Structure formats: structure tokens, C-alpha cells
Amino acid sequence: MNETAADIRQSIYRYFFWGIVVLAFIMGLAMIFLRIVDGDEGFYLSAATLLAQGGEPYLDFFFPQMPGLPVFLAPFSGHGWTTLFLARAFGFICHLILALLIYSYSKNIIDNRALNLSLFFLAALSGPLLTWNSLAKPYPLSNLFFFSSFVILTLTIKQRKMNYLMIFLAFAFLALAINIRAIFLIFAPLYFFLLYFYFRSIREIRFPYYLLTVFLGLVLPSLYAIRLMFISPANFLFNNLGFHLLRAEDPGFVNIILIKLFVLAKVLIQPHYFIPLGLAFWSLVIINSGKHKYDYGPWQRMVFQLSMVVAAFIFVVYMIPHPVHVQYFNQTLPFLIIASIPAIKLVLEKSGSVKPVLAAVYLLGILLYPALYILDIRDKYSDYKIANVKRVTQAIRHNSMPEDPILSEWVAYNVLSERAQLAGGEFVGHEYVFSSSIVPRSKYHLLSDERINAFLHNSVPELVVIKNSPIETWEKELDKNYKIMVKINNVFIYDRNKAGQGE
Predict the structure, then answer these.
(1) What is the pTM of this model?
(2) Closest Cα to residue 461, out of 387, 401, 385, 373?
(3) Rg, the chain, Cα only
(4) Distance of alpha carbon 242 from alpha carbon 261, whole angstroms
(5) Where in the chain are the domains?
(6) pLDDT digits (tens, 9 = 90+) for 114-149
(7) Which letter does DSSP use for residue 489 in this model?
(8) Within a 10 A sphere around the Cβ of 87, how many other Cβ atoms?
(9) CA angle 280-283-284, nearest 5°?
(10) Whether 488 contacts 382, CB under 8 Å
């Protein structure tokens, strides 16, 4: 039986789809098992472990985020390195679901197999999304939940009737995203008024039912956070807001602007940012041009424009705090990819070398991320490489018992070696200089230098793990009561100085 041209084309599309999946899995496995340990991963996994042991964020330990992530990570906790790899694998699965959701959603916008696969290609093989989703961090879940809420919101509008279940789900997924990362709270009023004014314009609104649906959607997934807020409002506000205003020294307004511009430049030089961004802006030109003005219906145009608005909101909000990090902006990419549909459609319709060149640049661009975060070509993260972190955790395990308390500047060493951190030391943090205005520290479950010195004076920690050199205020008691047992790269492990005890 002879194959038709359509059959051949469908076979090519099928191979292309599975080829993308295979490449994404290869990259995902590399990120899961080889990527440097992110500075925050140990902190999030430590919180998950404490939660699994019966503790609660804000009430029993310091946790400067919304409380949702430890809830999702708690089932993986307590197994050392296995915990890290399971949590990363969970993040990668979220990434793959997100890419498949973008693929499926694009079919609702325009059912064009080549176009849909192009979006899947951009999402599944996005270096920033793969790099930051395949971690024990807030990005994989918050990206998936927030984009899911956006999809349900826009599909609700497409139906042109009040579907209370879909409205509930749109706000429920938004609430889940908020409970992972608080910045998504800014979208609650946008969602509310967008749906309200749209359904009022087509005379579909029944306001009391709408208000109740929105309320239930936002509140039900947030009951745990609401409970914690009512029990300790001061701690809740400090952990989610106050700490972030006090965590860094103020370098001055001009320096802050220069730092932000430098971060922005680092974002824009990456092909996996500037290609979706360029295509998205080109799409805005296309849908407003006379030639292509009527190629898209009102709902499609709304989706493209709203995607750009959402991406812009995320960008602006992340540019406000200091310090700002390149990784934040991966959360704009799902929306830039959707916004780029008209430009991608136009590229696919044209013959010439543009398509293969763009695809080649994008594919080659993905190599940047393993180069930076696995090979560490900048030699910036030597102490965080998997092999070096394992050397430290093995030394900790060989020189301590499971019940021994360890004082580590980086709590990841405790999590990965399955050793407890001193209570209140879950966020000592060699990368953070806490403001002197955070008083009293004990109220927020943070160790003060005085408290740490008392522990060192009484030789409470079995081992002390420090990167580079001791914090100046600890140095006297550390030198008096501990000795350097081993140095691994820039990490020093101190053991109790038996001769000095009791003096």
C-alpha cells in the first residue's frame, strides 16, 4: 500500500515529536545527575525535611518563601543524595508537562502540526527552563501552576459563557502558584477584572456566584498558608517580605541600576531568551499590520497580547528587588513562546534559510547551559560541583554519627549527609549578610552570632563546616575549641579540639 504525502508528513511530525522528547530527556538527565548543586537547593530540601519531621515554616524554622514548596518536596526528604535527585527528577517531570501543555494549548489557538511542534521544540528544549526547572527550587511547580491557570483563564473566555468550574480551576491554579512563589499574587486582580469585565460585556455575569467562585478558588489551596499567617502574622510577613528588603547591603541607587542593567544584558545575550523575545515582538507587529490584521480572530489576538502583558508583568516585578538574578526571567518564557505564534507561523510559511538557521542557533544555544552549570567553564562554582560536594558530605558522614549536630554555613551539606543542622541554623548562609536591624533573631528562628559563639564555646556542634574562612565574629571561639580536620577545595571541616575542651 503506497503512502500518501500526508502520511509521510505525519510520520515526519511523529519522529520530530519523539526526537524532541528524547533530546529533552537527555538534557534533563544531565541536569538531574550532573548539574552543580544550586545554593538554594539544600535550603528548600532542609525545609521539606523539617516539615516531614513535624515542624512548620515560620513557626518552627525560618523560611523566606511561601510555604507550598516544602509540602510538595516533603515526600522526597530524609534520604541524602537520593532526596536531591528525586526532587530534581520531579522538577524535570514538571518541565516536561509544561512543554506538553504549551504544545496542547497551541492546538487550541491554531491547529497546525508544524507550528505546534515548533512551540514544543522551543519549550521542551529551552535551556533556561530546563536548567532552572530540573532543580529542587520553586520554578518547576510555579511555572507549571501559573501557566496552567493562564490556559484555563483564556479557554474560559473562548467559551463565551460562565463556566464556574473553569473559573474555579483558573484561580485555584493561580493560588497554587502563589503558594509556591508570592509574586504571582499580583495577577489575582488582573484575572478577576479581566473575567468580570469580559462576561459583563456579553451579559453573562452573575456577580455573587462569580465572587464566591473566585474566593473559593483562591482560598481552598491556600488554607495552610492562611493558617500559618493567622497563627503568627509577624513571622509570616517578615519571612515573605521583610527579609527580602533587608537581606542585602544597599550599594546606592546608581550601582543598583547598573547591576540591573548588567543582569538584563546577561539575559538578552542568550539565544534562548532573545529568540522567543524577538519573535514575540515581531508577532505584535504582525497582528497589528494591515496585511495580517484579519488572519487572527479576537480571541487569538487577545491570547497573544495577554501573553505579552503577563511576560511584561513578570519581568517588571523581578526587576524591582535587589539583588536581581538572571534565573528569575525563565518564568517569562512560556508566555513569550505563546506570544510568538504569529511570527513562527509566518516563518514556517516562507521558504529559504531562516527556518534551519533559527533552529540551528536554538539547538546550539542549548549547549551554553551544560557548559555553565555542569562543566562550569567560568570556574565559578567549583565547591558546588557534584563530585566536590560529595567529598564534603562523605567526610561529614565518616566523622560524625547521625544524631550529631553539625554547624554548616551551607545547609545542603547537612541535608546530603543526613545530619541535623543546629536549630535555627537552617539559614546561616555564607552568601548572606543579615541586617543588624533583624532583632531579635530568635523570634524569626535565626541564629545570632552570640548564639553561635555560645554553641562553639561549649563545643556543641560535632563538626563545623565553613567555606573560605570563618565569619570574623566566630573566629575566636572556633580557633579555641575546634581544629581543621580536612580542607576540600575552599571548604574547611572543623572537628572538636579535644585538648581545648573544658578550659
Answers:
(1) 0.93
(2) 401
(3) 25
(4) 25
(5) 138-247, 383-500
(6) 999 999 999 999 999 999 999 999 999 999 999 999
(7) T
(8) 26
(9) 95
(10) no
